[in-house]
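Quiz preparation item.
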């Protein structure tokens, strides 16, 4: 059986050969794997049985809150960015108690919000972007009305890596008294480690009520490790579900039985890397990002935007979609993004300089095919 599983595993792509350029996940840190194995059977859906793991979850949330400049924040390690975004809009909707609720989203918001709006019966209202592909606060303002329960901004958009003007959204949210949620699923563990100037996106901004930040993306923890952090403990009251026969009286997450192993893996990788470790990783990813974007520009490709985070997006005059298909045939896993007619490359920690060099070389050859 194991031999068969190993054979089947060979059908999957692997991070080690540096050809996965389309993923926002990466190879977990070795210590994250070990911690995961130690907590394999721990279930935070019944935290009364696993007080040790519950303690680790509190510590992980505490560290994320500190990173995001939040005091007295609460939250949970959840299954990923989708569940984290769901919990934010769920709390905002329940708090507002408005008929026919609406949420204002950037046109570039992650597709998880479409699922969430469908589930929660919230109408998504999309605000347009400015010339730098960030949501335009004036257009957001126009979308707000009596039924708006929340505004969403993205800090590290999935397609181009740009950061919405969260500071301006925060001012707007204060004025209009609506919940501001920041989807920093990807950027939350990148932006704090960038050199100045860093875009503002966290609890430093007064109106930010909730932030999504996923350890299973740039945090190098084992999947499923997403994070939802709320500014105020009151938010959890709007998510509270009674668990009549369990030791703990309530659950606050959408998922019931949930992985304590992912929490332990996050705790371990935070402890092993520390702030300095993450800073080094982000520095390396950004260096390779700049190397790639310069190489692409020199080879005559058009960059959609100068990278803010470790994502490069480019076009080819000879046809970008066709080029993406040819790259897949050559074994390079890249994303084709229809919205901007571009190829997206995410420079995650498994992508090394030698892979970027090989990619640029192959790309120039592939274009001529
Ligand atoms: N918010 C943002 C900004 C995201 O980038 C993502 C996922 C989510 C929310 C949802 O997170 P979960 O997928 O954890 O629920 N970002 C990646 C994307 O859609 C997910 C991904 C990961 C895609 C690995 C491909 C892949 O191989 O681009």
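Solution:
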């Amino acid at each position: 059986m194991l031999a068969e599983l190993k054979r089947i595993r060979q059908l999957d792509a692997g991070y080690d050969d540096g050809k996965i350029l389309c993923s926002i996940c990466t190879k977990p840190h070795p210590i994250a794997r070990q911690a995961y194995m130690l907590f394999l059977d721990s279930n935070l859906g019944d935290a009364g049985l696993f007080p040790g793991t519950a303690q680790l979850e509190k510590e992980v949330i505490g560290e994320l809150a500190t990173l995001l400049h939040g005091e007295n924040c609460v939250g949970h390690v959840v299954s990923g960015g989708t569940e984290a975004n769901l919990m934010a809009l769920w709390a905002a909707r329940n708090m507002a108690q408005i008929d026919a609720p609406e949420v204002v989203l950037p046109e570039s918001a992650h597709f998880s919000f479409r699922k969430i709006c469908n589930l929660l019966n919230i109408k998504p209202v999309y605000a347009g972007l400015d010339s730098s592909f960030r949501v335009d606060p004036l257009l957001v303002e126009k979308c707000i009305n009596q039924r708006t329960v929340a505004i969403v901004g993205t800090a590290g958009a999935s397609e181009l890596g740009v950061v919405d003007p969260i500071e301006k959204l925060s001012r707007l949210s204060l004025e209009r008294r609506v919940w501001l949620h920041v989807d920093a699923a990807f950027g939350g563990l990148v932006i704090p480690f960038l050199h100045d100037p860093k875009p503002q996106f966290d609890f430093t901004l007064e109106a930010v009520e909730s932030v999504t930040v996923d350890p299973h993306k740039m945090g190098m923890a084992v999947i499923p490790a997403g994070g939802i952090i709320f500014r105020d403990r009151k938010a959890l009251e709007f998510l509270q579900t009674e668990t009549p026969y369990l030791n703990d009286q309530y659950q606050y997450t959408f998922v019931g039985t949930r992985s304590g192993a992912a929490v332990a893996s996050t705790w371990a990788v935070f402890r092993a890397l520390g702030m300095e470790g993450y800073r080094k990783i982000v520095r390396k990813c950004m260096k390779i990002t700049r190397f790639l974007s310069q190489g692409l520009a020199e080879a005559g490709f058009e960059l959609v935007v100068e990278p803010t985070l470790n994502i490069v997006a480019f076009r080819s005059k000879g046809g970008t979609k066709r080029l993406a298909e040819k790259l897949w045939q050559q074994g390079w896993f890249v994303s084709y993004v229809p919205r901007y007619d571009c190829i997206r490359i995410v420079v995650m920690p498994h992508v090394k300089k030698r892979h970027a060099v090989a990619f640029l070389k192959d790309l120039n050859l592939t274009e001529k095919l």
